[in-house]
Amino acid sequence: MHVFYIYFRAWFLIYGLQLSNAPGNMELDCECRSVKCISPNAFTTFSQIADVTLDPMTNQAWLQLSDDHKKVQEDQTEANLPFSPQRFDSLPCVLGWEGYMSGRHYWEVEFANNGYWKVGVTTASSKRHGRFPMNPSTGYWVLWRSTRQFFACTNPETTLPLLLVPQKMGIYIDYEEGQISFYNAENKSHIYTFTGHFREKLYPFFALLDGRGVITIWSPKEHSRF
Ligand SMILES: *[C@@H]1O[C@H](CO)[C@@H](O)[C@H](O)[C@H]1NC(C)=O
To answer: What span is annotated as the signal peptide, if there is one (predicted)?
Structure first.
């Protein structure tokens, strides 16, 4: 709670003025943290910054996690990892360790080396094995940065402007509202929002689609640098 409040206060001082002039924004009010998030641009409602770490029982064997489980990149060799039914066996994916079954949660990731990726959330029971399409009907709510395009993985895909590809992305879920939103974490602008009804635990989801990509999760501690 406190970490969030400090983060928000600092953020408000930096961006608040600028955003309050943006069309479609809710009123920005530091005290109004319990107001429901109507506009995806309204950063006022983020009640919880999630301390996301990667789950070493889920990563596909070519994905190497850092010792602190905050960073993932592709390895030169396939690792010999313990069997786990939660582990992706074909697609180059990894999940966050903690799942969420209520409340609001926000985390940020940084992409290095202009790699290609998919990032979002998935459910506890969605498919992990083989190759399969990822969209809300298979339990995946993700954005996809591919070689030449940027998509929201709806069915069919929703093309997003390449200009919106962020260096650092914020992912926000509001479980009860059925909202999953993606932001440019540097200037806090909205990229895309999925809406739906969730009945299962939701886990942060990350995929690296080429050899050069690196995804780093930012922890709440680092937010205090604002
Ligand atoms: C934020 O950055 C993105 C990507 O550079 C840009 O497309 C967008 O217009 C920016 N938004 C604001 C509010 O500055």
So the answer is: 1-16
Q: Per-residue pLDDT tens for 7-58?
A: 444 444 334 333 333 333 333 332 223 333 334 444 444 557 899 999 999 9
Residue 47's pLDDT is 53
Q: What is the CATH number of domain 49-77+93-218?
A: 2.60.120.920
Neighbours of 185 (CB within 10 A): 20
- Tell me the C-alpha distance between 27 and 24, whole Å: 9
Q: What is the pLDDT of residues 110-155, one digit of tens each?
A: 999 889 999 999 999 999 999 999 999 999 999 999 999 999 999 9
SS3 at position 199: coil
Protein residue whose Cα sits closest to atom 3 of ligand 1: 164
Q: From the alpha carbon of 166, which atom of ligand 1 is closest?
A: 4
Atom number in ligand 1 closest to CA 22:
13
- pTM of the complete model: 0.80
CA 89 to centroid of chain Cα atoms: 22
> Where do the domains of the chain lie?
49-77+93-218
Q: Contact 145/180 with Cβ under 8 angstroms?
A: no
Q: By alpha-carbon position, which residue is closest to atom 11 of ligand 1?
A: 189
Residue having the nearest C-alpha atom to atom 2 of ligand 1: 187
Does residue 25's CB lie within 6 angstroms of at least one atom of ligand 1?
A: no
Choose which residue among 162, 165, 184 to substitute to test ligand 1 binding: the one with the highest number of ligand atoms within 8 A of its C-beta.
Answer: 184
Which among 53, 132, 120 is positioned nearest to 88, based on CA atoms? Answer: 132
